[in-house]
Every structure is written in C-alpha cells, then in structure tokens.
Fold this sequence. Notes:
Blueprint: E1 7-12, H1 23-36, E2 40-46, H2 49-52, E3 64-68, H3 71-84, E4 87-91, H4 97-107, E5 111-116, H5 119-127, E6 144-147, H6 152-161, E7 166-168, E8 187-192, H7 200-213, E9 219-222, E10 236-239, H8 247-252, E11 254-259, H9 263-268, H10 274-281, E12 286-288, E13 305-306, H11 310-316, H12 321-338, H13 341-378
Amino acid sequence: MTQPKFKCVFLGLSITSTWGNGHATTYRGLLKALSKRGHSCTFLERDVPWYAANREFDELPYCKVKLYGSVKELKERFAHLIRSADIVVVGSYVPDGIKIGRWVTSIAKNATAFYDIDTPITLANVRSDKCEYISRDLYPKYSLYLSFTGGPTLEYIERKLNAACARALYCSVDPSLYYPEREPAKWDIAYLGTYAPDRQPALEKLLLSVARQNRDRKFAVAGPQYPEAIAWPGNVNRIDHLPATEHRSFYNSQKFTLNLTRKDMVRDGYSPRVRLFEAAACGVPILTDQWPGLLSFFAPSSEILPVLSAQDVTSYLQMPHERRVQIGLNARRRTLRFHTAAVRAAEFEAHVLASLEQISSSNKRSRAAVRQSSSAVAL
Length: 379
C-alpha cells in the first residue's frame, strides 16, 4: 500500500539559525527526512534581527523557507498555504504563538499540531499563566500535541489540559551530519549549550570545579548568552557561538562530552536534549546529569555515564582509552537505531495519518447526522 504524501507547513522559531536555540537542528533533520519520504514542506519563520545577524543560509534543498515580519504579513501572504495544507505545525517559542495558533486552528482545513520542543518549560509557564506561545484554550484546538517530553507528561497534557492527542516526538539527529571522525582530542571534557540560569550550577559543579582541580586537563564551553561576570578557569576554552556546521568537529575533538538538563526537564523527565543524540552519533562518550526516563534512551555504564558530583567526573577522566571508545560506539549504535531524523519522520507521518483519518471519520459522522436530521425534518 502506497503511503500518502502530505503537504506540510511548519511555523517554527527558526530553521535558518542555530544562534541561542536547538530548534533549528531539530527542524532541519525532521524536514529533510520528511522530504526524503516524499512529503512537501514549507517553513515559515519570523524575521528577527538576532537570527538575521547569525543566519546560516537563506534556502534549503528539502523545503521552502519563507520569512515574515509580522502576524499581519503572515496572514496576508500565507493564509492560502495554511488552508490547503494536510498538516500545519506551530512550534514552541514562536513569536505571537498564541495569536498565530488561534488563527491557524480557525482556518486550517485538515490537521493541525503544536510541536513543543520545550515541553517542561512550557507546562511550567502555562501553570503560572506566563506562557507566550500557547494558552489553555489552544490545547484542545490542535489535532495533535507533539512533545519533546514523553512518559507520564503525555497523560497529564491530555487529562488536565484537554489536548485531543498528545504524542512523544523526541528530538533526533541527522547521521549524515554527525558521525565519528579521527580528530585529535583538544579537550578532555567539553559542553555545548546556551546559557540557562538553572543549568549553571550543574555546569559549575560538573565542569568548572573539575577544571580548577585538574589544571593539567583541558576543557571547553560553547554557547551564547553567558554573563560576563562568570570566572572561567584558565584551562577552559570559551566559545561564544558555534554554528551547526562546526558541531560535528567540536564533538569529535572531545574525550568526553557533558550533557546538562534544565530544572523543569529534570523534574518531568523523559526529555533528552538534541545535543545528547548529536554527541552519541559522533561516538563521543557522554557524561550526564540524571533524570527520570534516562534509562529509556541509553543504558548506564555501557552506553552513557551518569554523574552526580565532581568526583564522579574526575574518576571518569582516568578511564582506559579502549573502554571510553567502546561506550561511545555503544551509544552511537543505539542512536542510529532509535533516534535518527528518519525514525522521527516515520513517527510524525504515522501521527499525522492517524489524525487525518480521525478527522475524516468525524466529518463523515457529522455529515451523516446532518442528513439524518434533514430527513427527519422532511418527514
């Protein structure tokens, strides 16, 4: 049986720039994989100065990229696209996301989805009525709620927020872009991530304090928006912004990579960061903080190395080379089987197909009810 080909429209935070966000690499991998499966994709992105100044491209071979300057312009230029699409996806952190979500769900003719790449943070903000891109009234209006967080959170979203259908769509990696390379290690441990106040204590404990205690070792922290007041040890190489094109080389220049998780994501669990799968695809052994659901993605000790203290981190620095390499390869093997963009595209396709079938069945029932009502009136 031939699978249907969808006309997909995404309204996301950014696909053109990775500056200060991990959304772009997720969208790039997913849309590229969807295109390979025969679907047509258009990505609509708000044109803002900070992404314009750090834009990595203007066009992509696997999807159309369109920039808009305001909600008014979005409506004027792309209403026909929204109406004709098989699936319209609005992502988290989209500027004016509530206004856009209400508009999309009111005019779209087929399936609509909210793609939450920040689920625990979103839910924390919704609970305190501070979320700027989705509101309580929008949850039941979307056909699908696709979440970066799985586990018990999905039931909460359906039961407490009345989402019609909440499904996990975890982040992923494009293995054509992330793979092992034979590069000499520049750093013993490195970390890639935008500054976040709730992650900083863990960075201090698990990397900076280790660097201070091991002056003969080399470390690196890459990512924007870190306060100038941070006292970086002399053996920590500080990189303000690392374009996605340089991520693979960065990972392959590390003996270990450090994964740190934001407080809300630790609390809800089942929220792997995209950097986790990128590093794993490069075969780099991962030191990680611990959170519920971690074991659903990697096996501790053999595929990933959970750490609680600076002493844990320092002990792994003594690990024999052969074991370190094997742990990285084990994680890569698991990632290529379960966490590639191709896997996520197939999952996305299945969710959309089920949603469209449900919409079609509902429409048939509605038409049948109207005909029955008309017949009764005629009699």
